[in-house]
Write a structure and sequence with these properties.
The protein is an alpha/beta fold. It has 15 helices and 16 strands.
Length: 426
């Protein structure tokens, strides 16, 4: 094997996969630095909902992307008027990721660059408006663009059109695991040579009347009135998740492709695990077997053992069932004694649960953590829960080098995903 292949291939001959660009839109603002700063400062970006009147709702707080104007971030007026918010978030996050990567599509074989970008719900605002127009104004008043505006795959489609990416174009939909599964699918495609590079991630716009009503009536949302106390991952006082919105995008490439074009490799996706619980429509399997197995698969694919794990960027929704299940999974993976030492963090105390975007946003935070030798704290966490006997990070960790970190995502229906992300030491 050549010197290049020794540096760019795994022991089995498959491709190593690099992250060369990252972008985010979140309740913390536009850009990965706004997100990182809010997390490291232990900020709370959750606030009373402004988008609609919540007087008749039992839930009043959310993680909204406030004052967002797509025309201030590279969209034309026509695009800002025509595209649903989840598509606009996806575009702005992807623009940042591609700019960071330095990839120029005019220099690429477009058929070897994929878009794998999902949304858990898609254009729910347009869906609700379409039903309203149909019921109140009649079928002729439903917008002719209703379908191509609302469908969840249209984010991936519009991204491919925007950048001229003609490889695989997919919309992964696995509820709150969507973003992680999109990245994992892209990693596998690159690892086995189907494509050279991919734009991957997830986007969501679910702070919407029918979504908040549905999640509220399901009993999934926190009803806490104080925004700073509404999202409390792993805390004994937690009472449900807080809805968030936004997008996360990453540019992934084979090491050979990245090195050949002189790209800066930011971090490496060293492993991916994907499993199903086959247990319940909304609840995770309390045995934690499924998510633990996904975590183990991700570590093993990277050639790591649980002893190598630097930290866990948990799904950490702030619901009773999720947080205790993830705690059980970590202890089962690492052993009771060692598992209690692994730092655990959740971004959802800061920005809420961004649903289909969560796995992508959290993968970005995980990558920044291993790049910057730091682990952000869990906003809102103060009182440990005996049902979650793990080492929840409550203050920023700095100067903390890691071999590998895990980020986990769980979705309604029993979808589990885990990504192993490692620093790149040139």
């Amino acid at each position: 094997m050549s010197e290049l292949n020794t540096a760019t291939r795994r022991p089995d001959g498959s491709h190593r996969v690099a992250i060369t660009g990252m972008g985010a839109v979140s309740p913390a603002g536009v850009g990965i630095e706004a997100l990182w700063d809010a997390l490291m400062e232990r900020s709370c970006c959750i606030a009373p909902i402004q988008r609609f009147d919540t007087e008749e709702y039992p839930v009043h707080n959310a993680g909204e992307v406030r004052d967002f104007d797509g025309t201030e971030h590279g969209l034309t007026k026509k695009e800002a008027r025509r595209f649903e918010r989840f598509v606009q978030y996806a575009i702005v996050a992807s623009d940042e990721a591609l700019a960071m990567s330095g990839m120029k599509m005019e220099e690429e074989d477009a058929s070897r660059v994929a878009v794998i970008f999902g949304s858990g719900i898609g254009g729910i605002d347009e869906l609700q408006k379409g039903f309203h127009d149909l019921e109140n104004k009649g079928p002729k008043r439903v917008s002719p663009l209703f379908v191509p505006t609302m469908i969840s795959n249209i984010a991936a489609g519009n991204l491919a059109i925007r950048y001229g990416m003609k490889g695989e174009c997919l919309d992964i939909v696995t509820a709150c695991a969507t973003g992680a599964h999109s990245i994992g699918t892209a990693v596998r495609d690159i690892r086995h040579g189907y494509i050279d590079a991919a734009l991957a991630g997830g986007a969501e716009e679910a702070i919407n009347p029918i979504c908040i009503a549905g999640f509220s009536n399901l009993g999934a949302l926190s009803k806490e009135e104080d925004p700073t106390q509404a999202s409390l991952p792993f805390d004994v006082r937690r009472g449900g998740f807080v809805a968030g919105e936004g997008a996360g995008a990453v540019v992934l490439e084979s090491f050979e492709h990245a090195i050949a074009r002189g790209a800066t490799i930011l971090a490496e996706v060293t492993g991916y695990g994907s499993t199903g619980d086959a247990y319940h429509m909304t609840a995770p399997d309390p045995s934690a077997e499924g998510i633990m197995r996904a975590m183990s698969m991700a570590l093993q694919e990277g050639g790591f053992t649980p002893a190598d794990l630097g930290h866990l960027n948990a799904h950490g929704t702030g619901t009773a069932a999720n947080d205790s299940t993830e705690s059980k999974a970590l202890l089962a993976l690492c052993g009771e004694e060692e598992g209690k030492k692994v730092p655990v963090t959740s971004v959802k105390g800061c920005i809420g649960h961004t649903l289909g975007a969560a796995g992508a946003i959290e993968a970005i935070v995980c990558a920044l953590s291993v790049m910057r030798d730091a682990v952000p704290p869990t906003s809102g966490f103060e009182q440990p829960d005996p049902e979650c006997p793990v080492n929840v990070v409550s203050q920023p960790m700095r100067g903390y080098e890691q071999k590998v970190a895990l980020t986990t995502s769980l979705g309604f229906g029993g979808h589990n995903a885990a990504l192993a992300i490692s620093p790149y030491r040139a």
